[in-house]
Write a structure and sequence with these properties.
Layout (H helix, E strand, L loop, with lengths): L4 E6 L2 E6 L10 H16 L5 E6 L3 E3 L10 H13 L4 E5 L2 E3 L1 H8 L2 E5 L3 E3 L13 H4 L5 H10 L2 E3 H7 L4 E3 L2 H14 L2 H34 L2 H11 L10
Parallel strand pairs: 2-3, 3-5, 4-6, 5-7, 6-8, 7-10
Antiparallel strand pairs: 1-2, 8-9
Organism: Streptomyces macrolidinus
Protein name: Enoyl-CoA hydratase family protein
Family: Belongs to the enoyl-CoA hydratase/isomerase family.
């Protein structure tokens, strides 16, 4: 454990907070390891009725850490763990979400954000594809909208994220939005929650079982490509990559 995920408990709800604001909560190998361990504890804790996943700083998650990336298989494992966890997982977002961070949202059962949050599939702009994150997102989002935003890298606001299925709800105060959700989870029987979640997530887990190996291999191949090296270098140097037209 490296202390990148904080845990707190209140009346049946365990809150896990991504706490690497200096790195915009990017999915480094260390953060993925810490979050995986924290979720494992939540999944076996009888006092945890549900999990809230949130963040410090102005960014929920900036996607994969380009300086310390986890292997694609680790991201597959993390997203699948959230989907399969026998506790509902609720994303609470008050900042920006990019690339792999959208995989976290897609894996959660419920996702709410403040209206100041923004979202973008930035993979194509650095020369890769949203391969692994498509596993939880394809079964849960509008296909036409997903095609547009994955192919262009355009930014979405919270209202559009709700319309496309990236979010469940959004509002000026995300805690006000989530209050009835958490109250409902506290009133639900633990066995009923686990079995209901299992029914709802069955199609998502089918996608993982069918496609995860192929998509992890695709992700690894693209990240090792010359175009990805140019895209990531350009991103870190704050310039346009060589393929930008005009």
């Amino acid at each position: 454990m490296t202390g990148l995920v904080l845990a707190a408990h209140d009346r049946g709800i365990t809150t896990l907070t991504l706490d690497a604001p200096g790195n915009r909560n990017a999915l480094s190998a260390a953060l993925v390891g810490d979050l995986t361990a924290a979720l494992t504890r939540c999944g076996t804790d009888p006092a945890t009725r549900a999990v809230v996943l949130t963040h410090t700083g102005t960014t929920f998650c900036a996607g994969a850490d380009l300086r310390d990336p986890p292997p694609p298989e680790a991201l597959v494992g993390l997203f699948r763990q959230i989907v399969a966890l026998p506790r509902p997982v609720v994303a609470r977002v008050t900042g920006h979400v990019r690339a792999g961070g959208l995989g976290l949202l897609g894996a959660c059962d419920i996702a709410a954000a403040s209206t100041e949050a923004t979202f973008a599939f930035t993979e194509v702009r650095i020369g890769v594809a949203p391969a692994v994150i498509s596993l939880p997102l394809l079964p849960r989002t509008d296909p036409r909208a997903l095609a547009r935003y994955c192919l262009t890298g355009e930014r979405l606001d919270a209202a559009e994220a709700v319309r496309t299925g990236l979010l469940t709800a959004a509002g000026a105060d995300v805690d006000t939005v989530l209050a009835p959700v958490l109250d409902g989870l506290r009133r639900a029987a633990p066995q009923a929650l686990a079995e209901t979640k299992r029914l709802l997530t069955a199609p998502v887990l089918e996608a993982f079982d069918r496609d995860a190996v192929e998509l992890a291999a695709l992700s690894a191949r693209l990240f090792a490509s010359p175009q990805a090296r140019e895209g990531m270098t350009a991103f870190l140097e704050r310039r346009d990559p060589a393929w930008v037209v005009g």
